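just leaving the lab so this will be short. what follows is a protein written twice so to speak, once as letters and once as C-alpha coordinates for the fold. can you read through it and tell me how you think this chain folds. thanks a lot i owe you, the record is right below.

___
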Amino acid sequence: MTDATAANTAMLDDALPQTPAERLVYKTLILTWPFYGVGALYVVGPVLGWILGFMAAFALYFGSAMPLDQRATGSVPPVVWAWMLGMVAMLFALWAGHIDWGMSLKDTIKSSIGWAKGWALLALFPLAGSILPIRRAVIIRGQTAIGLGTLVLAPVMLAAPYVGLPERLFVSPLRAIGGPGPEYFSVYFFTFDPASWTPRWQFFAPWSPFAALLGVLMVLFSLEDKNIRWRAVGVAAGTLMILASKSRMGLVGLVVCVGGPRFMPLLLRGWAWQLGAAFAASMAMFGPSLMRLAQDAVDAFKGARADSSRVRATLQRIAEERWYSDAFWFGHGRVQPGAHIVEYMPIGSHHTWFGLLFVKGVAGFAAFFVPLAVQTWITLVDATRHARGRLPLGIVLTIILLSFGENIEIQAYLLWPALLLLGVHAREIAQNPDRQSQFGHPVPV
Protein backbone atom coordinates (compact mmCIF):
# COMPACT_ATOMS: atom_id res chain seq x y z
CA MET A 1 0.00 0.00 0.00
CA THR A 2 1.40 3.43 -0.97
CA ASP A 3 1.62 6.31 1.48
CA ALA A 4 -1.17 8.15 -0.36
CA THR A 5 -3.46 5.10 -0.23
CA ALA A 6 -2.74 4.59 3.45
CA ALA A 7 -3.52 8.23 4.16
CA ASN A 8 -6.81 8.04 2.28
CA THR A 9 -7.77 4.85 4.13
CA ALA A 10 -7.02 6.48 7.45
CA MET A 11 -9.17 9.46 6.59
CA LEU A 12 -12.02 7.22 5.45
CA ASP A 13 -11.89 5.18 8.65
CA ASP A 14 -11.83 8.39 10.68
CA ALA A 15 -15.22 9.34 9.24
CA LEU A 16 -16.88 5.99 9.97
CA PRO A 17 -19.23 5.80 12.99
CA GLN A 18 -17.80 4.19 16.11
CA THR A 19 -20.36 4.77 18.89
CA PRO A 20 -24.10 4.01 19.07
CA ALA A 21 -24.96 7.69 18.73
CA GLU A 22 -22.70 8.06 15.70
CA ARG A 23 -24.17 4.98 14.04
CA LEU A 24 -27.70 6.28 14.58
CA VAL A 25 -26.82 9.69 13.13
CA TYR A 26 -24.87 8.28 10.18
CA LYS A 27 -27.51 5.73 9.19
CA THR A 28 -30.22 8.38 9.34
CA LEU A 29 -28.16 10.64 7.09
CA ILE A 30 -27.38 8.03 4.46
CA LEU A 31 -31.05 6.99 4.40
CA THR A 32 -32.24 10.54 3.64
CA TRP A 33 -33.28 9.76 0.07
CA PRO A 34 -35.01 6.45 0.93
CA PHE A 35 -36.89 8.23 3.73
CA TYR A 36 -37.89 10.96 1.27
CA GLY A 37 -39.01 8.29 -1.19
CA VAL A 38 -41.70 7.16 1.26
CA GLY A 39 -42.54 10.68 2.48
CA ALA A 40 -41.14 10.07 5.96
CA LEU A 41 -38.57 12.84 6.44
CA TYR A 42 -40.94 15.07 8.42
CA VAL A 43 -41.42 12.19 10.87
CA VAL A 44 -37.80 11.06 11.03
CA GLY A 45 -36.32 14.44 12.08
CA PRO A 46 -38.38 14.98 15.25
CA VAL A 47 -38.20 11.30 16.25
CA LEU A 48 -34.40 11.36 15.92
CA GLY A 49 -34.19 14.61 17.88
CA TRP A 50 -36.10 13.26 20.85
CA ILE A 51 -34.22 9.94 20.80
CA LEU A 52 -30.86 11.72 20.84
CA GLY A 53 -32.17 14.14 23.48
CA PHE A 54 -33.14 11.27 25.77
CA MET A 55 -29.79 9.57 25.11
CA ALA A 56 -28.02 12.78 26.15
CA ALA A 57 -30.20 13.09 29.28
CA PHE A 58 -29.44 9.49 30.27
CA ALA A 59 -25.72 10.03 29.68
CA LEU A 60 -25.76 13.09 31.94
CA TYR A 61 -27.89 11.51 34.67
CA PHE A 62 -26.33 8.07 34.91
CA GLY A 63 -22.75 9.19 34.26
CA SER A 64 -20.15 6.47 34.75
CA ALA A 65 -22.86 3.80 34.99
CA MET A 66 -23.31 4.05 31.22
CA PRO A 67 -21.15 1.99 28.82
CA LEU A 68 -17.92 3.75 27.87
CA ASP A 69 -19.06 4.62 24.34
CA GLN A 70 -22.34 6.11 25.63
CA ARG A 71 -21.08 8.33 28.45
CA ALA A 72 -21.44 12.08 28.48
CA THR A 73 -18.42 13.88 27.05
CA GLY A 74 -18.76 16.73 29.56
CA SER A 75 -21.24 19.16 31.04
CA VAL A 76 -23.80 21.15 29.07
CA PRO A 77 -22.11 24.21 27.46
CA PRO A 78 -23.59 27.67 28.22
CA VAL A 79 -24.77 28.25 24.64
CA VAL A 80 -26.72 24.98 24.73
CA TRP A 81 -28.31 26.07 28.01
CA ALA A 82 -29.33 29.24 26.20
CA TRP A 83 -31.05 27.21 23.48
CA MET A 84 -32.82 24.98 26.00
CA LEU A 85 -34.06 27.86 28.13
CA GLY A 86 -35.10 29.80 25.02
CA MET A 87 -37.14 26.93 23.61
CA VAL A 88 -38.83 26.30 26.96
CA ALA A 89 -39.68 30.02 27.05
CA MET A 90 -41.08 29.59 23.53
CA LEU A 91 -43.47 26.94 24.83
CA PHE A 92 -44.65 29.20 27.67
CA ALA A 93 -45.18 32.04 25.18
CA LEU A 94 -47.28 29.67 23.09
CA TRP A 95 -49.45 28.76 26.08
CA ALA A 96 -49.83 32.40 27.10
CA GLY A 97 -50.98 33.34 23.60
CA HIS A 98 -53.56 30.57 23.60
CA ILE A 99 -54.88 31.67 26.97
CA ASP A 100 -55.06 35.32 25.88
CA TRP A 101 -57.14 34.42 22.82
CA GLY A 102 -59.32 31.85 24.60
CA MET A 103 -58.31 28.90 22.46
CA SER A 104 -59.51 25.42 23.34
CA LEU A 105 -57.48 22.78 25.14
CA LYS A 106 -57.49 20.73 21.94
CA ASP A 107 -55.88 23.61 20.02
CA THR A 108 -53.29 24.11 22.77
CA ILE A 109 -52.33 20.42 22.79
CA LYS A 110 -52.08 20.42 19.00
CA SER A 111 -49.84 23.50 19.02
CA SER A 112 -47.71 22.02 21.82
CA ILE A 113 -47.14 18.92 19.70
CA GLY A 114 -46.13 21.28 16.90
CA TRP A 115 -43.62 22.87 19.28
CA ALA A 116 -42.21 19.41 20.07
CA LYS A 117 -41.75 18.74 16.33
CA GLY A 118 -40.27 22.17 15.60
CA TRP A 119 -38.88 24.62 18.12
CA ALA A 120 -37.84 21.89 20.56
CA LEU A 121 -35.44 20.47 17.97
CA LEU A 122 -33.42 23.70 18.10
CA ALA A 123 -32.46 22.70 21.65
CA LEU A 124 -32.46 18.89 21.45
CA PHE A 125 -29.94 18.52 18.63
CA PRO A 126 -27.36 20.98 20.06
CA LEU A 127 -27.76 19.21 23.42
CA ALA A 128 -27.12 15.82 21.81
CA GLY A 129 -24.12 17.12 19.87
CA SER A 130 -22.55 18.64 22.96
CA ILE A 131 -23.06 15.64 25.26
CA LEU A 132 -22.96 12.46 23.18
CA PRO A 133 -19.70 11.12 21.68
CA ILE A 134 -20.41 12.23 18.11
CA ARG A 135 -17.54 13.51 15.96
CA ARG A 136 -18.02 16.18 13.37
CA ALA A 137 -16.28 14.01 10.74
CA VAL A 138 -19.17 11.52 10.90
CA ILE A 139 -21.77 14.24 10.30
CA ILE A 140 -19.69 15.67 7.45
CA ARG A 141 -19.34 12.30 5.75
CA GLY A 142 -23.05 11.66 6.15
CA GLN A 143 -23.78 14.93 4.35
CA THR A 144 -21.51 14.06 1.45
CA ALA A 145 -23.22 10.65 1.27
CA ILE A 146 -26.53 12.50 0.78
CA GLY A 147 -24.75 14.41 -1.97
CA LEU A 148 -23.83 11.15 -3.70
CA GLY A 149 -27.47 10.08 -3.68
CA THR A 150 -28.46 13.47 -5.06
CA LEU A 151 -26.06 13.17 -7.99
CA VAL A 152 -27.20 9.61 -8.75
CA LEU A 153 -30.87 10.66 -8.88
CA ALA A 154 -30.27 14.04 -10.55
CA PRO A 155 -30.40 12.84 -14.22
CA VAL A 156 -33.90 11.40 -13.76
CA MET A 157 -35.16 14.41 -11.83
CA LEU A 158 -33.70 16.96 -14.26
CA ALA A 159 -35.10 15.11 -17.27
CA ALA A 160 -38.55 14.56 -15.74
CA PRO A 161 -40.32 17.72 -16.99
CA TYR A 162 -38.98 17.18 -20.51
CA VAL A 163 -39.97 13.53 -20.88
CA GLY A 164 -43.51 13.85 -19.55
CA LEU A 165 -43.07 12.56 -16.00
CA PRO A 166 -45.47 13.99 -13.38
CA GLU A 167 -44.51 16.73 -10.94
CA ARG A 168 -45.65 14.86 -7.85
CA LEU A 169 -45.53 11.10 -7.50
CA PHE A 170 -47.71 10.71 -4.42
CA VAL A 171 -48.57 11.97 -0.92
CA SER A 172 -47.46 9.59 1.80
CA PRO A 173 -50.09 8.07 4.12
CA LEU A 174 -47.93 9.40 6.95
CA ARG A 175 -49.68 12.71 6.37
CA ALA A 176 -52.35 11.32 8.72
CA ILE A 177 -50.12 12.05 11.71
CA GLY A 178 -50.51 15.79 11.04
CA GLY A 179 -48.14 18.48 9.89
CA PRO A 180 -47.89 21.90 8.24
CA GLY A 181 -49.20 20.69 4.87
CA PRO A 182 -49.23 17.88 2.29
CA GLU A 183 -46.01 19.11 0.66
CA TYR A 184 -44.07 17.87 3.69
CA PHE A 185 -45.21 14.32 2.97
CA SER A 186 -45.13 14.50 -0.82
CA VAL A 187 -42.58 12.99 -3.21
CA TYR A 188 -41.76 15.24 -6.17
CA PHE A 189 -39.71 15.02 -9.33
CA PHE A 190 -40.00 18.79 -9.84
CA THR A 191 -42.51 21.64 -9.69
CA PHE A 192 -43.51 24.37 -12.12
CA ASP A 193 -42.91 27.97 -11.10
CA PRO A 194 -46.39 29.58 -11.34
CA ALA A 195 -44.89 32.95 -12.31
CA SER A 196 -42.82 31.79 -15.29
CA TRP A 197 -44.18 28.26 -15.79
CA THR A 198 -40.66 26.86 -15.92
CA PRO A 199 -39.54 23.81 -13.92
CA ARG A 200 -37.78 24.11 -10.57
CA TRP A 201 -36.39 21.30 -8.47
CA GLN A 202 -36.71 20.91 -4.71
CA PHE A 203 -34.91 17.56 -4.28
CA PHE A 204 -35.80 16.27 -0.78
CA ALA A 205 -37.10 19.61 0.54
CA PRO A 206 -40.78 20.66 0.58
CA TRP A 207 -40.10 23.53 -1.86
CA SER A 208 -37.31 24.98 -3.97
CA PRO A 209 -36.03 28.00 -1.96
CA PHE A 210 -35.47 25.79 1.07
CA ALA A 211 -33.71 23.20 -1.12
CA ALA A 212 -31.29 25.93 -2.20
CA LEU A 213 -30.24 26.67 1.38
CA LEU A 214 -29.93 22.96 2.09
CA GLY A 215 -27.57 23.00 -0.88
CA VAL A 216 -25.59 25.79 0.78
CA LEU A 217 -25.31 23.66 3.93
CA MET A 218 -24.17 20.69 1.85
CA VAL A 219 -21.41 22.79 0.29
CA LEU A 220 -20.37 24.04 3.74
CA PHE A 221 -20.16 20.52 5.17
CA SER A 222 -18.48 19.03 2.11
CA LEU A 223 -15.69 21.62 2.03
CA GLU A 224 -14.55 20.22 5.39
CA ASP A 225 -14.34 16.59 4.30
CA LYS A 226 -10.77 15.33 4.37
CA ASN A 227 -11.32 12.97 1.46
CA ILE A 228 -11.02 14.89 -1.80
CA ARG A 229 -13.39 12.57 -3.69
CA TRP A 230 -16.16 12.88 -1.13
CA ARG A 231 -15.51 16.61 -0.94
CA ALA A 232 -15.96 16.98 -4.70
CA VAL A 233 -19.16 14.91 -4.62
CA GLY A 234 -20.70 17.02 -1.86
CA VAL A 235 -19.73 20.37 -3.37
CA ALA A 236 -21.08 19.32 -6.78
CA ALA A 237 -24.36 18.11 -5.29
CA GLY A 238 -24.82 21.22 -3.16
CA THR A 239 -24.11 23.53 -6.09
CA LEU A 240 -26.59 21.58 -8.24
CA MET A 241 -29.27 22.00 -5.57
CA ILE A 242 -28.68 25.76 -5.47
CA LEU A 243 -28.75 26.23 -9.24
CA ALA A 244 -31.62 23.85 -10.03
CA SER A 245 -33.82 25.37 -7.35
CA LYS A 246 -33.54 28.75 -9.14
CA SER A 247 -33.58 30.49 -5.78
CA ARG A 248 -32.16 33.98 -5.32
CA MET A 249 -31.59 33.31 -1.63
CA GLY A 250 -29.49 30.26 -2.43
CA LEU A 251 -27.14 32.27 -4.63
CA VAL A 252 -26.71 34.85 -1.88
CA GLY A 253 -26.04 32.08 0.63
CA LEU A 254 -23.41 30.45 -1.57
CA VAL A 255 -21.41 33.68 -1.54
CA VAL A 256 -22.04 34.94 1.99
CA CYS A 257 -22.25 31.75 4.03
CA VAL A 258 -19.40 29.95 2.30
CA GLY A 259 -17.07 32.90 1.73
CA GLY A 260 -17.73 34.97 4.85
CA PRO A 261 -16.30 32.57 7.47
CA ARG A 262 -13.10 32.18 5.46
CA PHE A 263 -12.41 35.91 5.64
CA MET A 264 -12.89 36.13 9.41
CA PRO A 265 -9.19 35.47 10.27
CA LEU A 266 -8.34 38.68 8.39
CA LEU A 267 -9.78 40.61 11.33
CA LEU A 268 -6.62 39.70 13.25
CA ARG A 269 -4.29 40.95 10.50
CA GLY A 270 -2.98 44.51 10.69
CA TRP A 271 -2.76 44.91 6.92
CA ALA A 272 -6.42 43.99 6.57
CA TRP A 273 -7.40 46.83 8.91
CA GLN A 274 -5.20 49.25 6.97
CA LEU A 275 -6.80 48.13 3.72
CA GLY A 276 -10.23 48.58 5.29
CA ALA A 277 -9.37 52.11 6.42
CA ALA A 278 -8.22 53.02 2.91
CA PHE A 279 -11.42 51.57 1.48
CA ALA A 280 -13.56 53.54 3.95
CA ALA A 281 -11.75 56.75 3.02
CA SER A 282 -12.34 56.10 -0.68
CA MET A 283 -16.07 55.86 -0.05
CA ALA A 284 -16.21 59.63 0.37
CA MET A 285 -15.52 59.90 -3.36
CA PHE A 286 -17.08 56.75 -4.80
CA GLY A 287 -19.74 55.97 -2.18
CA PRO A 288 -22.76 57.64 -3.87
CA SER A 289 -22.10 55.88 -7.17
CA LEU A 290 -21.64 52.53 -5.47
CA MET A 291 -24.84 53.04 -3.50
CA ARG A 292 -26.77 53.63 -6.72
CA LEU A 293 -25.27 50.50 -8.24
CA ALA A 294 -26.13 48.52 -5.12
CA GLN A 295 -29.72 49.79 -5.18
CA ASP A 296 -30.03 48.88 -8.86
CA ALA A 297 -28.75 45.40 -8.06
CA VAL A 298 -31.28 45.01 -5.22
CA ASP A 299 -34.11 46.16 -7.47
CA ALA A 300 -33.04 43.69 -10.17
CA PHE A 301 -32.79 40.95 -7.53
CA LYS A 302 -36.35 41.62 -6.37
CA GLY A 303 -37.59 42.01 -9.91
CA ALA A 304 -36.38 38.52 -10.81
CA ARG A 305 -39.42 37.20 -8.90
CA ALA A 306 -41.54 40.32 -8.41
CA ASP A 307 -44.74 38.48 -7.45
CA SER A 308 -42.97 36.51 -4.76
CA SER A 309 -41.32 39.64 -3.35
CA ARG A 310 -44.65 41.48 -3.31
CA VAL A 311 -46.48 38.69 -1.46
CA ARG A 312 -43.72 38.32 1.12
CA ALA A 313 -43.56 42.08 1.74
CA THR A 314 -47.33 42.26 2.19
CA LEU A 315 -47.34 39.27 4.57
CA GLN A 316 -44.66 40.93 6.68
CA ARG A 317 -46.47 44.27 6.79
CA ILE A 318 -49.77 42.69 7.84
CA ALA A 319 -48.07 40.51 10.46
CA GLU A 320 -46.25 43.52 11.94
CA GLU A 321 -49.33 45.74 12.06
CA ARG A 322 -51.55 43.08 13.63
CA TRP A 323 -48.90 42.05 16.15
CA TYR A 324 -48.37 45.61 17.34
CA SER A 325 -52.06 46.50 17.54
CA ASP A 326 -53.56 43.21 18.75
CA ALA A 327 -51.08 41.01 20.61
CA PHE A 328 -47.86 42.75 21.58
CA TRP A 329 -46.50 40.46 24.32
CA PHE A 330 -47.60 36.91 23.47
CA GLY A 331 -48.93 37.09 19.91
CA HIS A 332 -51.98 35.45 18.39
CA GLY A 333 -51.08 31.88 19.36
CA ARG A 334 -51.03 30.54 15.79
CA VAL A 335 -50.89 31.62 12.14
CA GLN A 336 -54.13 32.86 10.61
CA PRO A 337 -55.54 32.56 7.08
CA GLY A 338 -54.47 35.25 4.62
CA ALA A 339 -56.61 37.05 2.07
CA HIS A 340 -56.43 37.17 -1.71
CA ILE A 341 -53.90 40.03 -1.57
CA VAL A 342 -51.30 37.57 -0.19
CA GLU A 343 -52.51 34.68 -2.36
CA TYR A 344 -54.15 33.13 0.73
CA MET A 345 -50.77 32.52 2.39
CA PRO A 346 -51.15 32.31 6.21
CA ILE A 347 -50.36 35.48 8.15
CA GLY A 348 -47.27 34.73 10.24
CA SER A 349 -45.62 32.49 7.64
CA HIS A 350 -42.66 32.94 5.25
CA HIS A 351 -40.58 34.92 7.76
CA THR A 352 -39.29 33.69 11.13
CA TRP A 353 -39.06 37.10 12.79
CA PHE A 354 -42.38 38.58 11.69
CA GLY A 355 -43.92 35.16 12.20
CA LEU A 356 -42.67 35.05 15.78
CA LEU A 357 -44.01 38.51 16.51
CA PHE A 358 -47.41 37.63 15.06
CA VAL A 359 -47.74 34.18 16.64
CA LYS A 360 -45.80 34.51 19.92
CA GLY A 361 -45.21 38.23 20.37
CA VAL A 362 -42.18 39.87 21.93
CA ALA A 363 -41.77 36.92 24.31
CA GLY A 364 -41.37 34.43 21.48
CA PHE A 365 -39.18 36.79 19.48
CA ALA A 366 -36.77 37.15 22.43
CA ALA A 367 -36.83 33.39 23.11
CA PHE A 368 -35.28 32.79 19.68
CA PHE A 369 -33.24 35.96 19.29
CA VAL A 370 -31.22 35.64 22.51
CA PRO A 371 -29.81 32.10 21.97
CA LEU A 372 -29.22 32.83 18.27
CA ALA A 373 -27.31 35.99 19.18
CA VAL A 374 -25.19 34.06 21.68
CA GLN A 375 -24.54 31.33 19.11
CA THR A 376 -23.63 33.90 16.46
CA TRP A 377 -21.15 35.67 18.74
CA ILE A 378 -19.45 32.41 19.74
CA THR A 379 -19.04 31.24 16.16
CA LEU A 380 -17.85 34.67 14.98
CA VAL A 381 -15.13 34.75 17.62
CA ASP A 382 -14.06 31.15 17.06
CA ALA A 383 -14.01 31.50 13.26
CA THR A 384 -11.69 34.48 13.69
CA ARG A 385 -9.27 32.45 15.80
CA HIS A 386 -9.64 28.83 14.69
CA ALA A 387 -10.34 26.83 11.56
CA ARG A 388 -12.87 24.78 13.52
CA GLY A 389 -15.18 27.80 13.61
CA ARG A 390 -15.64 28.12 9.84
CA LEU A 391 -18.31 25.47 9.43
CA PRO A 392 -20.35 26.49 12.52
CA LEU A 393 -20.28 30.14 11.45
CA GLY A 394 -21.39 29.19 7.93
CA ILE A 395 -24.26 27.21 9.48
CA VAL A 396 -25.33 30.14 11.67
CA LEU A 397 -25.21 32.53 8.71
CA THR A 398 -27.35 30.10 6.70
CA ILE A 399 -29.89 29.85 9.52
CA ILE A 400 -30.04 33.65 9.76
CA LEU A 401 -30.51 33.95 6.01
CA LEU A 402 -33.15 31.22 6.06
CA SER A 403 -35.01 33.02 8.86
CA PHE A 404 -35.80 35.91 6.51
CA GLY A 405 -37.57 33.69 4.00
CA GLU A 406 -38.86 30.69 5.95
CA ASN A 407 -40.20 29.73 9.36
CA ILE A 408 -37.19 28.07 10.98
CA GLU A 409 -39.18 25.87 13.32
CA ILE A 410 -41.10 24.23 10.47
CA GLN A 411 -37.85 23.43 8.63
CA ALA A 412 -35.92 22.14 11.68
CA TYR A 413 -36.66 18.54 10.68
CA LEU A 414 -34.18 18.93 7.78
CA LEU A 415 -31.77 21.30 9.54
CA TRP A 416 -30.94 18.77 12.22
CA PRO A 417 -27.41 17.85 11.00
CA ALA A 418 -26.48 21.55 11.17
CA LEU A 419 -28.00 21.91 14.65
CA LEU A 420 -26.17 18.77 15.79
CA LEU A 421 -22.89 20.20 14.49
CA LEU A 422 -23.43 23.38 16.51
CA GLY A 423 -23.60 21.22 19.62
CA VAL A 424 -20.42 19.39 18.64
CA HIS A 425 -18.71 22.75 18.14
CA ALA A 426 -19.80 23.93 21.59
CA ARG A 427 -18.24 20.81 23.08
CA GLU A 428 -15.01 21.33 21.13
CA ILE A 429 -14.70 24.87 22.46
CA ALA A 430 -15.33 23.68 26.03
CA GLN A 431 -12.72 20.92 25.76
CA ASN A 432 -10.10 22.80 23.72
CA PRO A 433 -10.72 26.53 24.21
CA ASP A 434 -7.23 27.63 23.13
CA ARG A 435 -6.24 24.95 20.64
CA GLN A 436 -7.11 24.83 16.95
CA SER A 437 -8.99 21.62 16.15
CA GLN A 438 -8.37 19.52 13.07
CA PHE A 439 -11.43 18.69 10.99
CA GLY A 440 -12.27 15.02 10.94
CA HIS A 441 -10.14 14.00 13.91
CA PRO A 442 -11.83 12.35 16.91
CA VAL A 443 -12.81 14.80 19.62
CA PRO A 444 -11.28 13.86 23.00
CA VAL A 445 -13.86 12.48 25.41
User: Anything to note?
Assistant: Residues 1-12, 436-445 have pLDDT under 50 and may be disordered. The two ends are 32 Å apart (CA to CA).
